[in-house]
Input
Amino acid sequence: MTVQDETTLKLRVGVDSGGTFTDVCMFDETHGEIHVWKVSSTPQDPSLGIAGGIEQGVTEVAKATGQKIDVVYFGHGTTVATNALIVGRGAETGLITTKGFRDVLELRRQKRDSLYDIQTQKPRILVTRDKRLEVSERVRFDGSIHTALDEEEVRAAARKLKEQGISTVAVCFLFSFIEPAHEKRVKEILAEEMPGAFVSISHEVAPEFREYERLSTTVVNAYLGPIMKSYLSKLQPRLAEIGIDAHPHLTQSNGGVISSEVAQNFPARTVLSGPAAGVIGALSVGGLAGFDNVITFDMGGTSTDVSLIDRGRPQMSNDAIVHGYPLKLPMLDIHTVGAGGGSIAHIDAGGLLKVGPRSAAADPGPVCYGRGNEEPTVTDANVVLQVLNPTHLLNGRMKIDQARAKAAIGRLADKLGLGVMETAQGIISVVIANMAKAIRVISVERGYDPRDYVMLGFGGAGPIHAARLARELDIPRLVIPKYPGIMCALGLLLTDLRTNLSLTRLLPLSTDGVPGMESGFAGLEERGQDWFAQEEIPEARRSLLRSVDMRYGGQGYELTVPCPAGPIDADALVKLRAEFERIHKQVYGYIAAEEPVQITTLRIEAVGLVPKADLKAYPPATGPVEAAVTAHREVWLPETGGFTNCPIYDRALLGPGHTIAGPAIIDQMDSTTLVLPGQTATVDTHLNLILEG
Output
């Protein structure tokens, strides 16, 4: 932002733009300090909230330090692609595919999403049938050409789409992941016939087998392309207006970051952008706190995202269904439910209390914001219970109206025949049950016992619900980081450049398959080195990790297994089989020792190590913990049977070694932590709160 001199602070800035709040985390490289800021999101144009949040946050840092600011790095987690997919406002898209296969997109897998739900609805088809065009071509399963590409048919299809006003095209041919020559030629023809069109090519987006999933991923990428391009083209000028010329990096769903140019070409990689940054932040915080086995609990204003870190490594998935659409892309195994601070409480057709997935979002927001919403939310329930400050949030920057919240919950209480406080607590109980179910999906249903893990609670609404959620799941220990409300933004400053490369090869796990594995990995590693060079990553900061997808012969699904470094010899084959059987036993409960094992896909994860924010340790507190008590408040707690006088602690005044006995409230700008009766909260050397009991 300014010419650097001895009075200039160099800041690395991470911004997570959520559905309700935009979080800003700023790391001062000069002094090693972290500064945070939080503003309401601007859903109509997220770039407004981002630029405004950065400008306000940087101004506060400049005031506090009396120094000029130079933003040297800008990392960004965004929900633009996710929201466009959810609400169906992507670009009108055309499809060019192999003759006879245009209806694969609609036929799907011919499976019901909810087997016993007679009213279940499939997600909207992103390309209507009149815009799904076929051309003559055919590649065999071994990569040989059966039918040459009819280029005139391709040109005719391009002209037809152009006449229909289409400027976004997905291209997906049969077996192009083995031999992509036809798709490459179509890309060249489209550049001639439809200059300026956004083109999504399957062998570039998802070069793996399984036709429907590859087609779906390619179409979603095309559908989101113009939206992401438009968004980023608005963001850059807004940043320039406030003096920031740092090149934007966006979080991918796999937890790494990519340049804005790559994000524009492959927007499908960013559908879990914000939540993925939170998991990476939790990985660092958990490791510093001494915990390798962590369940992440990220509750924001609109949704809750949960994930599992086992032995210091986040769980990955190579294919997932995001809002009904299969994506065959490497991504962190994150499960999302519509349970956030802004989730609306309502009564269903059977007269039962439900919470979410509909949200009040940022504008108008919860009833207590006073912006026109009249339907009670989870935040309103916490305000009525007085777990949340009943007069203001964000250290006084956001005034709230408890009377409005109480009136809204009172209307719901009348319909339920309950008291206001019982209804408010009922809302909390329902949302806790929803989130507990989500955690069981990524733990119990994957073969992990949540009692063996530490829960790390973050997000603006996470710390206020984490204690009850941990008790619900019998998780004995809970960690609340120093800045829980901006953990996703912090994660952006703790992640590396990362890309995942894959190659489908159907090979036996035996000496017969070794030549194919070695040649396949050699090709992937060469592509990885090309990526390192493109991203200008020094040799000393490069890392390549290998893995393989494996299954028993005849199985329909695979498990991803780490591949040992070095040559693929007899010892490596034994280790691969042993690790595959360990994972198979964990997931499915059995091992078929007599069955042959097959390799389906080879994978390389290329990581470029970059400078990161350093989370420093602090010296022990010198004063008594009572000095951090700023007030007392009557809080309605079912554990005590009603209103209980609770001390309110200012978290900024807590230091390592301080211990707080519940019930208590710990307040800070970006979040509020509830310590339940019978629990203790201890501050560790990195200013994390460790809750037990």
Observations:
- Residues 1-5 have pLDDT under 50 and may be disordered.
